[in-house]
Protein: sn-glycerol-3-phosphate ABC transporter ATP-binding protein UgpC
Organism: Ciceribacter ferrooxidans
Amino acid sequence: MASIDISGVKKSYGHFPVLHGVDLSIRNGEFIVLVGPSGCGKSTLLRMIAGLEEVTSGEIRIAEKRVNELAPKDRDIAMVFQSYALYPHMSVAENMSYSLRLRKTAKDKITRVVADAAAKLGLDPLLARRPKALSGGQRQRVAMGRAIVRQPKAFLFDEPLSNLDARLREQMRAEIKKLHGELGATSIYVTHDQIEAMTLADRIVAMHGGVVQQVGSPLDLYDRPANLFVAGFIGSPGMNFMKGRYMSGGNTTAVLLADGSPVAVEPRGGLENGTEVTLGIRPEHVAISAMGAIEADLDLVEPTGFGIIMHLSLHGLPFKIFTTDRSVLGSGSKVRADFPKDRLHIFDAEGNRVD
Ligand SMILES: Nc1ncnc2c1ncn2[C@@H]1O[C@H](COP(=O)(O)OP(=O)(O)OP(=O)(O)O)[C@@H](O)[C@H]1O
């Protein structure tokens, strides 16, 4: 196990910059998830840590040792890919033991380590099979088994579950989390799936356009998103945004929306009167109420079983409410609601959070 330190890391392909300077310190044993939309540079960052891509500038240290110039095989890390990358002509046991055999590890130790990993992953009955006789989930487990037996300093995961169907993904996600609890190994996991990021991470690194937008615990990012990008990316259905002007005077502080209607907010010391802001509220935090100050037109209702997503228009703009109260289904074409003050987020003209 090891800490991983990334300082001032930049990457360009030719003249095209892909990462604009990443600083990140990962503690020994921590589970870090790099999350962001396609093209944000998360795989490039992971591949640089693995040694599969050169670092253009900056430094990467694993267990406090600079690794920029080290070949992947000398970095003592294990990578688990979405494609599994198993050897088709080898059995499960042979696939799992391959790296140890290469290192000329003693036979009895190999047997013991492979048996341990197989037991942890529920692979005992499959050890003699070839990969083609396994399901996608079982292959993914073998890929993890192969990583575990090496007892590396860190595990790097590149979208390992994206080839699996939704139910299996959920199951494997829980298994990876449980395994991390048992092994306590430093792990970096890349995904574009924010649910995977929320459920797995000790800390999430949210990326966009080659820039780290926020680093924090899953609930930090959910409760206090640093900017509009993180606010919109984390949470499903996504946060509602409304443009307006911040007004504070006397006993009232409000954001005046485009149509002039006021939404009462807590005062924000850093904002001047009249500043343009974006107000945000999550669909699950809107309080439906017959006496509510906000009135919106109901366009569409999506019952998900667990709850109901209501698609509305508020002053002509799309707006969503999520509720588990089924009685709203009979509520007609208008919905009244309140925005609880403590659930409102305010972002300044640059899109940064204001508290
Ligand atoms: N070998 C390469 N040569 C040129 N550009 C590249 C190369 N590899 C990646 N890029 C570009 O770098 C950017 C970041 O790619 P990267 O694969 O890291 O994104 P990502 O966030 O992992 O996206 P995805 O989820 O789609 O894999 C993209 O714009 C991509 O087109």
User: Anything to note?
Assistant: The chain has two domains: 4-233, 240-354. DSSP finds eight helices and 21 strands in the chain.
